[in-house]
Amino acid sequence: MTILFKVFLCLILIFCCSSLVNCTEFEVGGHDGWIVPKSKDDDQMYNQWASNNRFKVNDTLLFKYKKDSVMEVIEEEYEKCKSSHPLFFSNNGDTVFKFNQAGLFFFISGVSGHCDRGQKMIIKVLDIEATPPPQSANDTAQKPHKSGAAEMTPMRTITTLAIFVLSTLCFILV
């Protein structure tokens, strides 16, 4: 193989791997997770959390909860806080939901009464490839975890490390 071909192959490999890093995993509710709001005044806490973040296709939500569930539903079911046929359902306590398209997504708790008490959320997923973070790294460091800022997840860290190792190997081989 020629050196030019090896360089070209390495660049394609790096480009393909780096596209995996463009997604973000958001932990719904921060440290508290997916819970029933503590007071009536907090009944919009998840929608406020969602409005502080910018979601795009391929981003994921991580719902952490105990003795609960999460459902993706249509808007009518969101308004009624009931669904007999959700678009998505999980009750494993550690649910990951991936956005596969742009648009509005409606989530409610599947436990009777929880949605009525504010455990529900609307997320708008933008129709763009990549977006700048909603705040700078300095802003995130100064705010508490509950601010809704996305955190670097282990999967993103591993992907970033893999890209670095692959790019280093490619240029050593060339």
UniProtKB/TrEMBL annotation:
Keywords from the named record: Cell membrane, Disulfide bond, Glycoprotein, GPI-anchor, Lipoprotein, Membrane, Signal
Compartment annotation = Cell membrane
The record's comment on protein family reads:
Belongs to the early nodulin-like (ENODL) family.
Q: What name is this protein filed under?
A: Early nodulin-like protein 2
Signal peptide coordinates: 1-23
Q: How does it sit in the bilayer? A: Lipid-anchor; GPI-anchor
Q: Which InterPro entries match?
A: Cupredoxin (IPR008972), ENL_dom (IPR041846), Phytocyanin-like (IPR039391), Phytocyanin_dom (IPR003245)
| Limits of the Phytocyanin domain | 24-127
GO cellular component terms listed in the entry, alphabetical order = plasma membrane; side of membrane
Annotated GO molecular function terms are:
electron transfer activity
